[in-house]
Please model this.
Amino acid sequence: MRIGMLKTLVAGASALALTLAVAGSASAADKPLYGVLMKTLSNPFWGAMEKGVEEGANKAGVAYFLQAVESDQAAEPQLNTCNTMLEKKPAVMITAAINSTILLPCLKHANELKIPVVDLDGNLDPEITKKAGVDVAFHIGSDNEAAGAKGADYLVSVLGKDAKGPVLVIEGLSGNITGAKRAHGFADELKKAAPGLAIVASLPGDWDSLKAANITNDTLQRNPDLVAIFCANDDMALGAVESARSAGKDKLIVIGVDGNSNAVKSIVAGRLNASVAQLPYLVGMQAVENAKKVLAGEKVPEFTYVPTLVLTKAALDAKSDPMLQYVK
Amino acid sequence: MSAVSSSPAVARSWRQRIFGGAAFRFESLLVLAALTAIMAVLSPVFLSFSNFFNIVLSTSVFGVLAIGMTFVICSAGIDLSVGSIVGLSGVVGAIATANLGLPWPACIVASLAAGAFAGWVNGFLITKGDIPPFIVTLGMLGVARGTALVLSDGVSIYGLPPEVVYLGQGRPFGVPAPVIILLLTAVVAHVLLIHTRFGVYAQVIGDNEVAARAMGVRVERHKRLLYALSGLLSGLAGLLFAARVNSGEPTAGLNYELTAITATIIGGTNLFGGRGSIVGTIIGALIMGVLQNGLNLLAVRPFYQQIAIGSVLVLAVWLDRINSKEGRRR
Model:
């Protein structure tokens, strides 16, 4: 009876595995296979980037397989996934690393296997990769400092350069270069454009909307006259705006970065004030296009910055800007 | 008193003598074999030395955690803080060398000591404070993680001494160093659990604490040692993690306690205490590693992977319940 039961189980397990394989695997055929490693698919920002990769792959006539891990803090799982992806010997490894150091052993191995490495969305600090002896074919992303600066410019355009008041900055995951650059870009530009607006706190929200909501609540306790909140991504901005509005602060200006689909909905509904759209769709698409160029031996610039766009209710309602087609 | 057996009248085979009897869940080995076969068929890349080493490498950190967890669960306890201690010990080790500039042995000693200390605090609160292990280790989960974040100021501390990095990235004789460390730890732990009084007492305490006390086992002292051991092994896992990524990451080991518990249970150790098996735990860890690696190779979307892993846990335990040789289990 035991053997029979086990036989049934093995059969069941095979059926399950086959179903999953059919459901999940990318079609390969004889096209070159690109490996794409993301952080997590739960944020619509990355979902849009995935769509861009898909579009780019279709246009370039290449196949790709995409993997992600369960959260943007799952460091070792991302390293393990990277190692596993290399087993399939992809033509190129396009990675959105959780931080600059975590994937270095795997990327070194990719270098040894002569597989070009692409830094997706500027997560690899070039100083660190150079010091570790890892060769990155190119970095593509948005200029995060400029994105932060655009957020500051928007705020000043609304409040005026003589405005005075406390401002809250909610950063990304501690130590993450993207979040650090956005916060830094915002702070620098704000000091120059409107010295009366003082940043009273700059706290890490870890890309998490609930954390950002809690930080907003706590800061409003100390500074009930808060005039603006700048968040390093939309998820956090959406959390912050909920806290602000439920505390009755309707005049509080909340600005996010990413331009993800949830933020767009919120802006159109009049809740979130603005988001500096990073056009992840365009980033994903161009990453694949440039990767194909690298494989063909062409020269590609080391740093490619995809333009950003400030999304506000006015801009979204007018629908006139051609870049809006890349906002997914 | 030699290893615990269910029926003294039955002659013990050599297999039982070495592996310790019924706790080693044979069904799990079959599940592992079946999974390996399925993955090999579905993905041509699966069956290769480099992929095999990859699998064991990816299980090395939580495998070491699971070994410590086995001892604790045998004693009818639980340790929810192991994941956080991984983060804490990695950060402490990194600070010792990268920030304080101490020589490389300090990194190793500091990581292990941090882990052992945290584990000892757990044991102390559980025994002297008479607080349930679930609560104490749940508290330590927060305290250790928070301490790691405070000490590191939330950022990863990059750059460990090359001797330490070798522990995580070196390949002596072509085998990844963490794999060797995991195997050595498993062998030592197995001998400890099955063939020494230390291990046998752990199982006896979990099986029937009152009887253990009546036998003269110093239960409280033993429990403190068990949690210190779990902490020490968490420190080792933290050191391996840091060496693998060449930095002390305060967020290292997030949610690893659940993985460690899953591997231990799949392996055959009774969740409510008593019989335990290191061999089983390693098999349980490998099942999860094979599943993860295989699903990654097949490019299955990560959300399905989580469903698969949860299902395998329930499946493996269910297999055991319907095929159990013994009578009622608690």
Q: What stands out?
A: The CA atoms of residues 85 and 125 of chain B lie 16 Å apart. Confidence is low (pLDDT under 50) at residues 1-5, 326-330 of chain B.
